[in-house]
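Human: Here is a favour to ask of a fellow structure person. Comparing notes only helps if you start from a blank page. Give me a protein, with the fold worked out from its sequence. Please set it down just below, with no commentary around it:

Assistant:
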Amino acid sequence: MKILVVGGGGREHAIIRALKKSPRCTEIWCAPGNGGISYDARCKAIPATDVDAMVQFAKDEAFDYVVVAQDDPLALGMVDALAAVGIPAFGPDRAAARIEASKVFSKDLMKKYGIPTAKYETFDDPEKVMDYIKAEGKYPVVIKADGLALGKGVLICQSEQEAADGVKEIMLDKKFGASGNHVVVEEFLTGPEVSVLSFTDGKVVKPMVSSMDHKRANDHDTGLNTGGMGTVAPNPYYTPAIAAECMEKIFLPTIQAMNAEGCPFKGCLYFGLMLTPDGPKVIEYNCRFGDPETQVVLPLLESDLLKIMAACTEGTLADTEVKFSEGAACCVILASGGYPVSYEKGKPISGLTNGQLEGESSITVYHSGTALREDGTLVTNGGRVLGVTATAATLPEALKKAYAATESIHFDKLHKRSDIGARALAAMQ
């Protein structure tokens, strides 16, 4: 099969490397891709959000299957547009992608169908937001922009002043554009966070191995929120008993709710969960693979990813094997100094051969923000540059291997956290 993957980051790179293992995969492309991805797939410089150009390209090249990995094109209806020209794709259609594209839609869905989540209200008037927050008088309080905001449209406010500043930033200054026309105000939940990506064909749900993200820029979970500075899998807080409870109270009810609303969900549904003292609750849904969660989950997949994806599209997931190894994985993100605010690009990267570390079969370097110069030099081209992933029999081994591997890779002003996986290790004691 000739396959196109839509997107251009570390997540897409992980998907491509997993798809390439399938005997059914004969040719693979990525659009727009990036410098590092070009070692593993042919790249075409089409913006992921240009639905018309992407569909035309898919038609012209006669792709057999398209994997729409990024949230924006899913929200814009790329899967619908591909279906209209007869090209099957992995991912939800526009109506189902609202589960991530609109926080208001997803919160109202959970309320209507009794899916456990934080208490909330939605608003389109900044004054009313503040009236509600003052009346509740509970801090911290969570304020979320309604639409897509690159994983950064969530503010945790410790005081009335912080809340007022946050409302101004989202609703008046329009830091996230139209995404901030509506906001959701939520109670602050406590407990360990767990990310569970799952395959679904709109009927059954087959969860992947659980993972733990590290959102803050600096050690000890300090600094600004980022797209994610590293991940580990599995998440030690996610026990078999909790997994069974989540399947019964969250996963299947969500799929059933989407069917009842007339927008069945097919693809990868990401459950962002908080394990609260009152049981697991949904913090957020994503309508696609997470980044950098994918970079630890897919290396542990033993089954054929292409086969699974096709089963999600065709509605035959119940009869398809989804098997993960018993081992563990750790991904450490190497970022540009200054990320997530301002950072320089174009820094040469040393230590890699054709984008990978030589002779390291249990180490994979996933490229998030890299570019290839005309002379073949690999350079930085984004905030998050590389994700260095190690797999091993145990989590302590995976952490040790991942960090050792990062020492072989260099670029000017490289920034990484030194404590990825520390929380997971503490939970295992």
Q: What stands out?
A: The chain has a mean pLDDT of 95.
